[in-house]
Amino acid sequence: MDGQNITKVVLLACGSFNPITNMHLRMFELARDYLEDTGQYRVVKGIISPVGDAYKKKGLIEACHRLEMARLSTENSDWITVDSWESLQPEWVETCKVIRHHYDEMLAAEQNNDDVDTVKYAKKRRIEENYFDGSSYHKRRDGPQLMLLCGADVLESFGVPKLWKQEDIAEIVGRYGLVCISRSGNDPHKFIHQSDMLWKYRKSIHVVQEWVTNEISATHVRRSLRRGRSIRYLLPDNVVDYIREHGLYSDESERKNADVVLAPLERYTGASSS
Ligand SMILES: Nc1ncnc2c1ncn2[C@@H]1O[C@H](COP(=O)(O)OP(=O)(O)OP(=O)(O)O)[C@@H](O)[C@H]1O
Ligand SMILES: O=C(O)c1ccc[n+]([C@@H]2O[C@H](COP(=O)([O-])O)[C@@H](O)[C@H]2O)c1
């Protein structure tokens, strides 16, 4: 295979991870297999970015615990890492801004690796090639591409009125790219077909079919814990142990944020975000 034409990819998954489950980790494996099978990509890194507490989703426990569980779950992985930046922000950060943050970090790391001025100049030119001309994004020809990794429910949430900004969706799919893992109850292909914006950027949306029907969800894990049921084998053993040791997830924690507006929706209600 000609290595010159292979684009390196970094996958970024944003979500509550409340708590992280085996399915969250499997998403990375499925995405990597799918992208590498095309012969066009080599996935070099996966990043898990747990949302901050200011997201205010019902039942969202403290970021420090969600972060630690994600770290434990990836301690034996040689390519999936956990990043705390988003979870440490005092305000909720829109996903598009999280992606931009990681993209800038990636570019900075790349530039630090170059020690010859001419190479730096060439790199700068290529960075500038990654621009939006008013109707479409022009991608850089080299350097890793950052793609958002999500489940089909998140893709379909793009259609929930007032949840996402249209310009953010355009930037996420048009400028960066999206890998979407199928999830029972969702039909990503139909959703893309029915959305003019997603249809426009369909070539940047990679839909990956998970053939093993898998309904593991963090909601199910939290519910099982509240009912005193086993959660073993739904998530890594060290995460199960951490949950037990810290007595996480109870009726009380599930009531957290029950009466508050989810941060993205606050943008429209005008409610205070602090
Ligand atoms: N079983 C699954 N199949 C496909 N994608 C999944 C699955 N579980 C989670 N994901 C994806 O993982 C990412 C992070 O998800 P999140 O932390 O919201 O987990 P969740 O299980 O959906 O949570 P909750 O049940 O609390 O809503 C999202 O992109 C979500 O779509
Ligand atoms: O950027 C946005 O406008 C936006 C709107 C709604 C949700 N998100 C992100 O999508 C993720 C959804 O996670 P969850 O657990 O609510 O499925 C989480 O990382 C949120 O920050 C992002």
Q: At the first level of CATH, what is the class? A: Alpha Beta
What is CATH's topology name? Rossmann fold
Output mean pLDDT. 90
The ligands bound in this entry are: adenosine-5'-triphosphate, nicotinate mononucleotide
- What is the radius of gyration? 19 Å
* Count of discrete alpha- or pi-helical segments spanning 4 or more residues: 13
The helical percent reads 40-55%
Name of the CATH architecture:
3-Layer(aba) Sandwich
Number of beta-strand segments = 8
Q: Estimate the global geometry from the Cα principal axes.
A: globular
Structural class: alpha/beta
CATH superfamily: HUPs
Strand order of the largest sheet: 3-2-1-6-7-8
- First-to-last CA distance: 52 Å
Q: Which stretches are poorly predicted, pLDDT < 50 over at least 5 residues? A: none
What is the ordering of alpha helices and beta strands? EHEHEHHHEEEHHEHHEHHHH
Largest sheet: 6 strands, parallel
Main location: nucleus
Enzyme class: transferase
Catalytic activity: beta-nicotinamide D-ribonucleotide + ATP + H(+) = diphosphate + NAD(+); nicotinate beta-D-ribonucleotide + ATP + H(+) = deamido-NAD(+) + diphosphate
Protein name: Nicotinamide-nucleotide adenylyltransferase
